[in-house]
């Protein structure tokens, strides 16, 4: 990247509650196959009459985005860029059920209008009266990283100087039941932590995580995004070469990385990809986060927030430590995520000294 890109603010609504300083001190590990996000109070941000008509995903997105803007002290972003795997899933299910129940007649448009994937980004922009660039990426488990790539390009080309970037996904009952049938989600009778997992499937969840990005370094800056890369398919044996090529492009080597963040999710069929990746980083701290966030298409946004918090505070909480290695100084973190052997992503972050 020619133009440096800084993360100045974070906001989130997750299974661990909203983003806050004590989030890892108060976190509880997810052991059930379905974990709902802890919903905050929305009345200060959204009119009560509107709250009733809004899906959970929209409300989470509005809260997390405003928290990120406040944290970064951005009053009006130049662009709103979001990523989502399945969009406002509850409204999608409600609309499809209404089609079946009413024999495709007399359908109210509200659920259809709010079921589209770009609804969250649109509602955020409407609320902020932001008339700038607004784009939503729907690209499976790299939906958030796709949005991040766009944000980096916008800042590098000076099209924008302050961007609201986020990822959001929500749980809906019927979709969860279907994913259980095909072993994408663990069975109801299985209660396993990620480290103890011996079964296929994941513990699923939902959430919204947003970031205030800027090309300007300021007292609120928490970390620098050096680069991001996504790849649909990577052979397990080629992960090391791919990682080295990514680092070489950023004038770095494996020895320059002070910690890695892994997206391990407890699916015994595919966590071996993380084992292969981590085998090159056995001498440094390895961190993980999906035991706190759960697995969903944009859970990697929570992983990015985790890495940023570690870089900013220079402390690795015990609850996110995958191995037992500690580091006195963490200047560079590499985040790796994949889902079911596809949609691989790498994000390189640097610690910054604020003015």
From TrEMBL:
Record-linked Pfam families: Ketoacyl-synt_2
GO molecular function list: 3-oxoacyl-[acyl-carrier-protein] synthase activity
Cellular-component GO terms for this entry: cytosol
UniProt domain Beta-ketoacyl synthase-like N-terminal: residue ranges: 44-173
Keyword flag ATP-binding: no
Coiled-coil intervals, chain numbering: none
InterPro entries recorded: Beta-ketoacyl_synthase, Ketoacyl_synth_N, Thiolase-like
SUPFAM superfamilies (alphabetical): Thiolase-like
Keywords from the named record: Transferase
Protein's UniProt keywords contain Transmembrane: no
UniProt record, GO biological process: fatty acid biosynthetic process
Name recorded for this polypeptide: 3-oxoacyl-ACP synthase
Organism: Sphingobacterium hungaricum
